[in-house]
TrEMBL record:
This is STAS domain-containing protein. CDD domains: STAS_anti-anti-sigma_factors. It holds the Pfam family STAS_2. It comes from the Bacteria. Signal peptide: none annotated. Transmembrane segments: none annotated.
Amino acid sequence: MLVLPTRLTHDEAPACMRMLQQGLKGQADSSSTVVDATALAQFDSSALAVLLECRRESSALGRGFAVKGLSPRLRELAALYGIAGLLPAAP
């Protein structure tokens, strides 16, 4: 499982994406990618961009994608942008 930091804004997005990319490479035997957003407390729309990029890279590797612990605020932001369906909830 990949884990998001507590803060993910425009300033943190590049470093966070690099971290997630490394995590994806380290999960070579996995059929699905789960990103844990439980700790995410401070964010802007960059968090959505990072999640979408992670989803894209996971898909390119032939893996499923889901997000665990997406806060109601971030889910509302995703709905506002029309991308909520691209960020399915993990069981």
